[in-house]
Amino acid sequence: MVRRGSGVRFPAPAQTEDRLPVVARDGTCSRYAEGLNPNEVLADGGPNMPPMASELRSLHDLSPLRHDSIFGRMAPITRRPRLVLLSFLMLFTELTLIRWSGANVVYLSYFSNFVLLGSFLGIGIGFLRSRSKVQLFPWAAPALVIFVLFVLLFPVQVDRSGTQLLYFGGKPSGLPIWLMLPVIFVATAAIMAMIADGVARTFATFEPLEAYRLDILGSIIGITAFSLLSFLGTPPIAWAIVVGACFIALLPGATLLHGLQQGLAVLALIVLLWVESTLPGTYWSPYYKVSLRSGPEGTYDIQVNGIPHQRISSTAQRFETEPLYFAPYQHTPENRLNRVLVIGAGTGGDVAIALAQGASRVDAVEIDQRLYRLGKALNPEHPYQDPRVHVYINDGRAFLQQSDRDYDLILFALPDSLTLVAGQRSDLRAISSLPKPCRWRRTISRPMVCSRCTTTTASSGWSIGWRGRWTRCTDIPRASIRPG
């Protein structure tokens, strides 16, 4: 009787269904262990264990190949591509959850790292339990569908009431914050733990350095792919197709039950996000979910990520309903307005007012090209078609740091980065060359008077830069500004 391990090849078994794939150390999976009972091979841990038994054991744990597999005898995806693809899926899904959840739940605008922290917790849990006999990865796609359905059924948005220039507070729609945020945190952690479970089990089949190299490669590709899709302004249906394709590519070797539940979950995910992506008046920019709704008297209301953002209306309508937009010009009647800068130009409302007040040139800076396009198409004053207007699609702070031009008036039209420009660890300011020079430390929300020369210097989020230049001002104490 020939003893196993003596180097003699065993005869092939009568039933080929019992053959197990042999994973070579280069990641290929093209041969089969002949004449070996799968249960004996996986159970044998002694010196007679075949050289590739450890790989067989790992592969068996990762995705059991049985005669009831949905793909028959098709071998699972090889180990290296599998780890790269799983790492890609994990990072891509994490970024998708962060952006998509924030676009539908306004609470996440104030707790921006909430989903990120839940993802970190879930990934840690997935790796810690990678030796468990219960596999969680097959349940990742169904869990993702349940989460998407929950958020779509209970979105949280802010309803604008009245015609105030600024809208803060109010009661958002949807579930209360004390319930919504914990649900999102736990759901995010659970989804990421299920995906990380698949990553960790494949991760353990490699030497540490090689595993880290493949994991980092997949993660970088995932980050790059999501960044490119966001830059192109693709809607969530594109993200769902990418995630679904990854789940489908990882199916070979799965059991019939797991294959069916993964396939149905992917189909449901694509359908849900296709419905959201094709809603009338809904656009996705590189930064926001932009919602456009028709308002009274030919106006349009724009929401970004569920928050009222701006209204497209004529200059005459704005003068009647929101006269504060005209305050900068009323406080500076002698300003020649040869050159005006608008930071956060949006759909062009402030640009149209500057032109109506006689500005010779207006530099309009707007970071979101989608808002610029909506303003160009829908603004009744057509400010962006005026030859006096020069548009810069750029971040406002970056533009200020790079520009060396002089402006007669600088308008901060409530950009999202206003706090960075005007209050938090930033001393980049305009220095005024008024007849009685004065400097101020920050842009403010109501008329302020310099205590040195009693000259009104700022109002309603705008700053005067009379023939000014940008400089760093740290020597003027906050007490030098007092309310007017």
Summarize the structure.
The chain is 41% helix and 13% strand. It is α+β, with helices and mostly antiparallel strands and 484 residues long. It folds into three domains: 16-62, no CATH class; 79-279; 314-483, Rossmann fold, CATH 3.40.50.
Label the overall shape: elongated
N- to C-terminal distance: 104 Å
Question: Any low-confidence stretches, pLDDT <50, length ≥5?
Answer: 1-75, 162-169, 417-484
Major sheet characteristics: 8 strands, mixed
Task: Round the Cα radius of gyration to an integer and report it.
Answer: 30 Å
Structural class: alpha+beta
Number of strands: 16
In DSSP terms, counting alpha (H) and pi (I) runs of 4 or more, how many helices? Answer: 15
Tell me the fraction of residues in β-strands, as a range: 5-15%
Mean pLDDT: 75
What percent of the residues sit in helical stretches (DSSP H or I)? 40-55%
Instruction: Trace the largest sheet across and list its strands.
Output: 9-8-7-10-14-13-12-16
Count of discrete structural domains: 3
Task: Give an overview of the whole structure.
With 484 residues, this protein is α+β, with helices and mostly antiparallel strands. The chain has three domains: 16-62, no CATH class; 79-279; 314-483, Rossmann fold (3-Layer(aba) Sandwich), CATH 3.40.50. Helix content is 41%, strand content 13%. It has helices at residues 38-43, 53-62, 79-104, 114-128, 140-153, 177-203, 208-231, 236-249, 256-277, 315-321, 327-331, 349-356, 369-378, 396-402, 418-422, and strands spanning 20-22, 31-33, 282-284, 289-294, 300-304, 307-312, 340-343, 362-366, 389-393, 409-412, 428-431, 448-450, 456-459, 462-463, 469-472, 481-483. The protein has an eight-stranded mixed β-sheet with strand order 9-8-7-10-14-13-12-16. Strands 3-4-5-6 form a four-stranded antiparallel β-sheet, covered by helices on one side. It starts with 19 loop residues before the first strand and ends with a strand. 38% of the residues are buried. Residues 1-75, 162-169 and 417-484 have low confidence and may be disordered.
